[in-house]
Write a structure and sequence with these properties.
By secondary structure, this protein is an alpha/beta fold. The protein contains 7 helices and 8 strands; from the N terminus they run H-E-E-E-H-E-H-H-E-E-H-E-H-E-H.
């Protein structure tokens, strides 16, 4: 995994980024940004920052799809994984979670607000005034660019499958096996977080896990165990990965 990429940041953001490695070492909760209404967006970090593998899990993007938060909490309550640095963001959308709404406090669907293939959309999928117009999506983009995670899992609802999200399908298929969910495909929306991440950070892979509308304790347990098992397998030196480099002619590859 390539580490230490340089990005231009405001002084407050620079302070936040400087704190990330210390938080990872201590296994602490760290605020990675704030919502439109000022609620903190937290990440829980466990493991050694010098580990060969970084994994990012986001439990909730749409405020009315909260089941992934239970998986996130199960992960943060578990012992640190060997040879893995695990970052868990229980919810990217605390305002929407508090209100029980899909979008943030401005009604923006955060999973339509990322730069890759962004389009102006209205209604429940309102995509904002432009790419990364919202503080929550900017916080996620900032974090992923800084971490450059090898593996990222975005939890959603309600389709009950592991989505072929444009990353490494073998990884998606393995998670589906571990979690006991089918591997399937849903229409890839414009401006989604996973599509943007797979385009601009192709040395890692990101995918969506769609939990069903009703999620029992057994599936929460299986999903958390699947994250840990997949991360442990991928951290093994016996596991090799080949990821195509970005096309340098692509504007999104230079974004």
């Amino acid at each position: 995994m390539i580490r230490g990429g340089r990005i231009a940041v405001l002084p407050t953001l620079l302070c936040c980024l400087v704190c990330f490695p210390a938080a990872a070492l201590a296994g602490k909760q760290e605020a990675i940004g704030h919502s439109l209404q000022g609620r903190p967006i937290f990440a829980q970090v466990s493991g050694d920052p010098d580990s060969p593998l970084r994994v990012l899990v986001v439990g909730c993007v749409h405020g009315d799809e909260p089941a992934g938060i239970r998986v996130a909490r199960r992960l943060t309550a578990s012992p640190a994984l060997r040879a893995v640095e695990l970052w868990v963001v229980p919810t990217l959308n605390p305002d929407g979670l508090a209100a029980g709404t899909r979008g943030n406090a401005r009604g923006v669907d955060l999973n339509r607000n990322f730069p890759f293939d962004w389009k102006p959309l209205d209604g429940l999928e309102y995509s904002g005034t432009g790419p990364l117009s919202e503080p929550e999506s900017r916080a996620a983009a900032r974090l992923t660019r800084h971490l450059r995670p090898d593996l990222t899992i975005w939890f959603h609802q309600p389709f009950g499958l592991v989505d072929r999200s444009g990353g490494e399908e073998a990884v998606e298929r393995r998670f589906a096996q571990l979690a006991g969910l089918p591997l399937g495909s849903i229409p890839r929306p414009p401006g989604s977080a996973s599509s943007w991440q797979n385009r601009v950070l192709p040395q890692g892979t990101a995918f969506v896990v769609e939990l069903p509308a009703v999620v029992g304790t057994d599936l929460v347990t299986r999903s958390a165990r699947a994250v840990r098992a997949l991360a442990s397998e991928w951290a093994s030196p016996e596991v090799s990965r080949q990821v195509a480099p970005p096309d340098p002619r692509s504007p999104s590859a230079r974004a």
